Amino acid sequence: MDYMKLNQNPMNLVIYTIILPLFFNQVNQLTSSNLNKRDMVNSKKFVEELKRHRELDGHIDIESIVTVDLQIDKLMIKDRVLSKNINGSYKKGDIIWIKGSSGAGKSTLLKLIPKFRESEGVKLNKEGIINITNKSIRSNVEYLSQNVPIIKGTLRDNLFLGKERLLEIENDLIKDPILKTIFKNINLDTVILEGGTNLSGGEKQKIAIVRALYNHSDVLILDEITSNIDKESANDILNRITDDSSNRITFIITHDDLSDRYYNTVLNL
């Protein structure tokens, strides 16, 4: 069909076929340019933020942790002093009860050992912690809190949690006294729901403890893990920890009074 018969103004043809496409192409390029520039600026800001929050790392690798020494004049968060003059020297076999009022910095103190916070007042094997690599420290330290990581999967999945599954260890787990109450109702193939919603608080803590003990870490830090669980479960956990403490340095934070059979030294904040 002849275009000139439909449209008496040939300029319209020029506008629709040439000028408008050029216009929108330029707009698209301008928009893309602005977006790319904005993305570049945001990327630079993100990289700078990562640099500011990058963990400091040491240069010395250690195979194990034999001693932990604390020599801290002031325990601080930002500009607030939590406690002063914290001193102690600990070796394998020690179970240390960390005591102090709320806000004294008990958790803050123990987070210095796995280098979750920066400090120059902690020594491992008589070496300043700042000089030791983060990886070699954290491969030898277990830090447990009330917030137990439980995944959706079998009980077996949760007990091993990424570790190699060995039949020998499975057999030991089945016989482990701390899990005896759990195995009354479920087995290794039982599916655990996301977050452990089909487990009690005590059961989740027992899984976390057994998981930590079978990692055979040199330092075990227990941060209020017996809070909000029944006394029987708490005693089961503490008995299990005490029975298997000779090759480990264990730190315990709890608001509850501890029987002296569960510790051999106290650090007061």
UniProtKB/TrEMBL annotation:
Residues 60-266 form the ABC transporter domain. Keywords: ATP-binding, Nucleotide-binding. SMART domains: AAA. GO terms for molecular function: ATP binding. PROSITE patterns: ABC_TRANSPORTER_1, ABC_TRANSPORTER_2. Transmembrane segments: none annotated. This is ATP-binding cassette domain-containing protein.
